[in-house]
C-alpha cells in the first residue's frame, strides 16, 4: 500500500545553506534544477485491533518488532487510546535493533495532552538510510506518568502481522500493536544527509494538515448538534454580520417586520440592542425635540 505526499525541497547551492520546505506543487519542478521531489510513503501498516494494551506508566513498557522493507525509515505511528480522559506528561518512543539491545537508534517524544482517542500519533525522527530489509524494535515508555494519568495503544490479540510481535517489558507476547511506518522515497545521493531540522519541518507540516482535517471534522459534528442549532437561532453564534450602520429592513416596513428581520439577521442579542436603541430614541431623544 502506497500513500505519498509530495514535498518540494529546494536544492542548496552550498553546504552552509539549509534547504527550505514547501508543500504542494510548483511548475518549477519540471525544470529539474531548482527543486527535488521527496515522497513520504507507508511501508508497514498493521491497523487491526480489538483491545488496548493497558496503561503505559512507570516501569510498564510496550513495544513491537517489525521488518522495514524500505530504506530511509523516518516515522512510526501508533493508534492511541486515552481512556477518555486528558493526560499530561511525555510519552517517549525508542527505536532499537532488537529487544536485547540497549542502544537507541532514534528517539521521539510527544506530549500526552496532544494525544487523541483512536487517532494515529506520529513519532518522527531523522531518516535511517540503511533501513531496507532490516529488523527493528521500538517501545513506548512514560516513566513519570502515574497510573491514573497514562495513555495506552490499541493492539490485536491475534498474530496478524507476520514479521514481528508485540512486547511487554521487552518480552514477546501474543498479538501485535496497531502501528504503521513511513519512509522517504526519492532521496538522491546529494541530499541523503538531509539536516534533521528539515525533516522535522516536513513532519510538522504533515501533522498540521492532519490536525486541520480533524478540526474540520469536529466542527462539522458540532454544527449538526441540537445545541449548536439552538444557539445559532438565538443569534449567539454563526450569525451573518450586517455592519455597524446597515439595517436589513426598510424605514417604511412595519415594526413587526423590522423585529423579525432583526432577529433573523442579527440574532436575539441584535434584537435586544436594536430595541434599546429604538426605546431610547422614542422616549428620550424624540421627547426632547
Mean pLDDT: 76
**Terminal-residue CA separation:** 80 Å
**Count of distinct structural domains:** 2
What is Rg?
28 Å
Order of helices and strands: EEEEEEEEEEEEEEEHHH
Major β-sheet annotation: 9 strands, antiparallel
The residue ranges in which pLDDT falls below 50 over 5 or more consecutive positions are 1-36
Number of contiguous helices: 3
How many beta-strand runs? 15
Sheet-strand content, in percent, reads 25-35%
| Shape, principal axes of CA atoms | elongated
Fraction of residues in helix = 10-25%
Q: Label the structural class.
A: alpha+beta
SSE map:
Blueprint lengths: L4 E6 L10 E3 L11 E12 L4 E2 L9 E7 L4 E9 L8 E7 L9 E6 L8 E9 L5 E8 L10 E5 L9 E3 L2 E3 L2 E2 L1 E7 L10 H28 L2 H8 L21 H34 L1
Antiparallel strand pairs: 1-2, 1-3, 3-15, 4-11, 5-10, 5-12, 6-9, 6-11, 6-15, 7-8, 7-10, 11-14, 12-13
Q: What attributes characterize this protein structure?
A:
alpha+beta; nine-stranded antiparallel beta sheet; 2 domains; six-stranded antiparallel beta sheet; 289 residues
Can you describe this structure?
The chain has 289 residues and is α+β, with helices and mostly antiparallel strands. The chain folds into two domains: 5-220, no CATH class; 242-289, no CATH class. The chain has three helices and 15 strands. The strands form two sheets. Strands 1, 2, 3, 4, 6, 9, 11, 14 and 15 form a nine-stranded antiparallel beta sheet that branches. A six-stranded antiparallel beta sheet has the order 8-7-10-5-12-13, with no helix packed on it. A hairpin with a 2-residue loop joins strand 12 and strand 13 (171-173). The model is unreliable at 1-36 (pLDDT under 50).
